[in-house]
Specification:
Largest sheet: 11 strands, mixed
Number of strands: 30
Bound molecules: zinc ion, fe (iii) ion
Mean pLDDT: 94
Distance between the termini: 56 Å
Number of helices: 24
Length: 755
């Protein structure tokens, strides 16, 4: 009987390059006895396979249904082509020509196979800090262009030795076509220098144990490392870095060490051990031996990550098990990625430098997340391990560039059904961050091979991103309201397209009436929104100055609640407030000169200040973070509030809360209980307002977004109350709820507009 021979061409799109896809398919083809070829091209991979029809069908099924672990198949197509009579299956060189739609893989934490090699004394890679394979290693941070080939990465200057080349060419080897493949003979090398950049021969572990601070060149930038168990070392680092309150993250030797200091549930463990290896914010154990007041002052949580490169593993031993690992940038400036720059800028901070000779091309911070009470991950900073993977969005769009906000800036470019969010660029008021942002936009456009048709930016006329957008010639622009973008980001992530109610609790954002918004309830979708409720306006003395100085907002609430008595109370309770400053603020309030705000963030600031928890912010969001940390676990009461309707909009008024709260303070009630009651009051008020709105509007889906929802206490309570009332509740997860996520929302709105 003659078998029916066919040939199929299969095109596969998604993350299918640099993760062992071709050797995997090669092995499968051999297993099924097929001939033909596989090739990387700029859109993904293309396969031609020839053999008996039945076996071909099974082969295609196996390729699609059981891809290698790191592959993400977005779509695929297979069609019969003319039989060629090929006699073997082979892997052919990349094709540069086609439409560049490939997806670049994020950096991947060291895999177990490679880790074993690094630890194995008889392996040729024993102790080698740049060991990697197709399942792990650097990707995005070293890639200069697509398609992804060694020549287009910062590994191009390290030609492979014969041993590595052999692995690279062997389709059955774990390092087959592993572009950054390297060994001690041919790959990058590390070296240690003193504070002035002079090479020294010392063991970094011994230096750390002696309390030294070492600047370590990592995957996406420099870290400052210090032994977290030595209090003086941590104190010195804090002093030298002039970071007087902001919490430090730690890297622990292994998950067992993490358990000595933190509570870890299954989901948290899964993320800690994941290939993205983010910093996970964990609840600290009360009996942890660490100097909590130095590492995370005022908070009961600790940011923890596990080693994710071989270099990191080499920083630990049986005595050294927990290191401070904080980004080595100077205050709000960009990550440092260059050796010379590191020595120049950090010589007064670091005692030693652990450097290497591989260039970092794309700077990328550690990602930061938390697992919330619904056991889902909530991203605070989406960067290493996640960028530049695409986020599936519920619509197919024309290419859009959305330039995000001002602080924690990210931008977003869409390509068909995916949104590509950049890493965080930080505060764009710093010139170097702004420069990096612009370079990032060009690199993303090149990497994705798209030319956006529209630029979406925030409505705030003075944001650097808005100015930048205005300066771009010959392209359409669209200004988008800040909280509409927050809402759209949460909708997109949850694949929502129909109209929703949006509860947006945020620090700041330019409103359509010129006020500073931030405690809003909208009805809307990507096309538009109607404002249905907001926190009742309060004056915001001096605009942005007040964001750094919560005591100023406390004065406003005190004065509005109790008049002159409030003023006297303010002088008593707010030591940072001078008579001069308070008189100035009051005079301007009385004259109605101040801008108005409905900001929920500023409300939390005011409460934090009045309770003496945090009166001046030393880092963004400090006052509300410490207020949340101070909240009593067992308190279940809340204060009063008032809802009134004015011109069709519900005004959520918290002055009744202040009227109840101030006597509590005067009666020396425990401030933890007051802090908790404030959280519960807001949650109740939002629920009541949403119930009234649902009745009128008939919409049952609510999305929660905005930076204030990083607050777990508020998120959890709002979620419980709304779910209890039968609302379908959604919120941001792998895209930040804060301003790091608004570029996604802007992109969604703009893509709807250009349709
Ligand atoms: Zn590996
Ligand atoms: Zn080698
Ligand atoms: Fe915001």
């Amino acid at each position: 009987m003659q078998m029916c021979i066919s040939r199929y061409q299969i095109k596969i799109y998604g993350i299918v390059q640099g993760i062992g896809f071709r050797p995997h398919v090669f092995r499968l083809a051999r297993e099924y006895g097929l001939t033909g070829w596989i090739q990387n091209n700029s859109t993904g991979v293309i396969i031609e396979a020839e053999g008996p029809e039945v076996r071909l069908k099974r082969f295609i099924q196996a390729v699609i249904e059981e891809p290698p672990p790191l592959a993400v198949i977005r779509s695929w197509e297979a069609k019969p082509v003319e039989v060629r009579g090929s006699d073997q299956f082979c892997i052919i060189a990349s094709d540069d020509q086609e439409d560049k739609a490939v997806m670049i893989s994020p950096d991947i934490a060291l895999c177990e196979d490679c880790r074993q090699e690094v630890l194995n004394r008889s392996d040729r890679r024993c102790g080698y800090p740049f060991t990697n394979c197709t399942n792990c290693g650097p990707r995005y941070t070293i890639i200069q262009d697509v398609p992804y080939d060694r020549a287009k990465t910062t590994m191009s200057g390290f030609p492979m030795c014969p041993d590595c080349q052999k692995e690279y060419e062997n389709p059955l080897h774990r390092r087959f076509h592993a572009q950054p493949n390297a060994c001690p003979v041919c790959g990058p090398q590390i070296f240690l220098t003193d504070g002035q950049g002079n090479k020294v021969e010392k063991d970094p572990r011994e230096l750390l144990k002696a309390g030294n601070i070492i600047a370590v060149k990592g995957l996406g930038g420099f870290h400052l490392a210090a032994d977290a168990s030595i209090r003086q070392a941590v104190t010195r680092l804090r002093k030298r870095k002039k970071r007087d309150k902001k919490p430090f993250a730690v890297m622990v030797r292994d998950i067992e060490t993490a358990r000595k200091h933190c509570m870890i549930n299954l989901e948290e463990e899964r993320w800690l051990l994941s290939r993205q290896a983010p910093i996970v914010i964990l609840n600290r154990l009360e009996d942890s031996a660490l100097a909590g007041d130095e590492i995370h002052p005022g908070l009961d949580t600790l940011g923890v990550m596990l080693p994710y490169t071989p270099l990191h593993y080499l920083l630990f031993d049986h005595e050294l098990e927990i290191l401070i690992m904080t980004s080595a940038n100077i205050s709000d400036e960009p990550l440092i990625i260059d050796n010379d720059e590191a020595v120049e800028k950090l010589n007064e901070v670091a005692d030693y430098f652990l450097l290497h000779d591989r260039e970092i091309y794309n700077p990328c911070d550690d990602s930061v997340m938390r697992v919330n009470s619904q056991n889902t991950a909530q991203m605070f900073r989406r960067a290493r391990g996640f960028v530049p993977a695409g986020i599936t969005i519920p619509v197919l769009t024309e290419p859009v560039l959305a330039v995000g906000g001002e602080m924690k800036n990210t931008f977003c470019i869409t390509r068909k059904g995916d949104a590509f969010l950049s890493q965080h660029w930080g505060d764009l008021n710093h010139y170097n961050n702004y420069v990096n942002f612009q370079a990032g936009v060009s690199r993303f456009k090149q990497m994705l091979n798209v030319e956006p048709l529209i630029i979406a930016h925030d409505m705030h006329p003075d944001y650097q991103t808005s100015r930048w957008a205005r300066g771009q010639k010959d392209i359409r622009k669209l200004a988008i309201q800040h909280h509409h973008a927050h809402m759209a980001s949460a909708m997109a992530e949850n694949q929502l397209q129909e109209e929703v109610l949006g509860l947006i609790c945020d620090g700041t954002g330019w409103g359509t009436d010129g006020a500073i918004w931030g405690g809003e309830i909208f009805r809307g979708d990507y096309c538009g929104f109607t404002r249905l409720a907001h926190l009742k306006y309060m004056p915001l003395p001096g605009g942005d100055v007040t964001a750094d100085r919560p005591y100023r907002m406390a004065l406003v609430y005190l004065y509005r609640t109790l008049g002159d008595k409030g003023l006297r109370l303010a002088e008593e309770l707010l030591p940072d407030l001078t008579r001069e400053e308070s008189e100035l603020i009051i005079r301007r309030l009385d004259n109605g000169k101040e801008p108005l705000t409905s900001s929920c963030g500023r409300l939390f600031d005011a409460v934090s200040a009045i309770l003496g928890i945090c009166t001046v912010n030393r880092y963004e969001g400090q006052a509300p973070a410490e207020l949340e940390a101070a909240a009593d676990k067992y308190e279940i009461d809340h204060y009063a509030y008032q809802l009134e309707k004015e011109e069709g909009i519900w005004l959520m008024d918290v002055l009744p809360m202040w009227q109840d709260l101030l006597p509590d303070i005067e009666n020396y009630q425990n401030r933890g209980r007051i802090a908790k009651k404030v959280h519960l009051t807001l949650a109740e008020m939002f629920k009541d307002t949403l119930l009234k709105i649902r009745e009128a509007e008939g919409i049952n889906q609510v999305v929660l977004s905005g930076g204030v929802f990083n607050n777990q206490l508020l998120l959890t309570r709002v979620y419980e109350l709304l779910s209890g009332q039968g609302f379908a509740v959604y919120y941001n997860q792998l895209v930040p709820s804060g301003d790091g996520g608004i570029s996604l929302g802007q992109a969604m709105i703009a893509s709807e507009v250009i349709k």
